[in-house]
Amino acid sequence: MRVSHVALDDFRSWRTGVVEFAAGPTVLLGANGQGKTNLVEAIAYLSTFSSHRVAAEGALVRIPLDREEEVPGGAVVRVRLVSHEGREQVLELEIVRGKANRARINRTQVKPREIVGLVKTVVFAPEDLQLVRGEPGVRRHFLDELAIQLHPLFVGVKSDFERVARQRAALMKQAQARSRRGESADLSTLSVWDVQFSQLSAKVTAARMEVVRLLQGPSSKAYDDVADSPRSMSMSFDASIDRTIGTDPDVPESGDLEDIEAQTARLLAALESVREREIERGVNLVGAHRDDLFLELGHMPVKGYASHGESWSVALALRLGSFDILTEDDETPILILDDVFAELDSNRRKGLARLASRADQVLITAAVAEDVPESLKATIIPIRWDAEAGTVIDDE
Which strands sit side by side in the sheet containing 24-29, from one edge to the other? Predict the structure, then answer.
């Protein structure tokens, strides 16, 4: 699978533009701040409806530098996909400020969720170092993006869980406030929220656990391939319920985290066990919103113990493993390498170049052409910023 054309309207720094991609590796070349990453970000956004750079969707819509120019009401991303068999699809997503997004497939209007998963991407970027060094939310986001590409309907499950978790947390906050005033907490609707919260939390955790199970082998092998280290890499899923409840006799033992029915029952028991603590603190203390991915090198935690080079190798190995599990029937995901060759030493560059040789399509952003290995034999597309037109292809 590859993208043959991308058209952007008011997306980030692009006022309007159409870019055609040849088969094989392509390098988007230009100085920092010209809009190279914005182009590949638009493609990756169609995969999971999330960005590797910003959390707020509104940030994807162009903001004019001229204060007298009217602010666009939204941005449009269109891509033409070409399969191995030559079958073409045109996907379009309109990101609308303050309103529901709109989507089309081959000019037919569809629900936005219907285009999720049609474009599969793996993005490796400097921000990936936070997979190792950052907070648990970064690793949850990583697992969720993979789960969405493996099972596109998961995007709805995750959205529903986040909505219910917010509503339940608001109820806990209200109960905390009443308790501090010496009043009885109103928990008359809590049982309803507990059931929904437990069911959705169990589904989210199960999806993440599946990703970890699939990712373990390919990522460990990839680490051995790219790292000059005697230590092996391993990972395990750190489920919130196991960490929070421990050996509470009133909560059933862990069991299979992919068994949604059993884990729903466990969560209901766990919520009952932590009820007083939740009211005291005004938060949801147990659930998928507190899951984590635990990474080790030679039985030592990567976070806090790995060197800078080892941390980069682990981040790269996670992306290489992602590429493997998203490859299906010899059709590979689109590999996006966002300004990372400059960050890597020669061994890691070689490992990344080996992966690139396996991909149906590789999109690379770079400020300096010499940072990209010559062995890739990539097509070069120069990118520059124009004060009036925004980001453009530099044909001069």
Answer: 108-110, 102-105, 88-96, 74-82, 2-11, 14-20, 390-393, 379-386, 24-29, 361-366, 334-338, 121-124
217 and 325 Cβ atoms separated by less than 8 Å: no
Confidence (pTM): 0.93
Which residue has better confidence, 362 or 251?
362
H helices of the chain, in order, are 36-48, 130-133, 136-150, 154-180, 190-226, 240-245, 260-273, 275-281, 308-326, 346-356
Single-letter amino acid code for the residue at 182: G
Contact 27/378 with Cβ under 8 angstroms?
yes
Q: What is the pLDDT of residues 99-124, one digit of tens each?
A: 899 999 999 999 999 999 899 999 99
- Burial label for 211, CB within 10 Å (0-12, 13-18, 19+), is buried
Chain position carrying tokens 């790219």? 226
DSSP string, 323-337: HHHH-BTTBPPEEEE
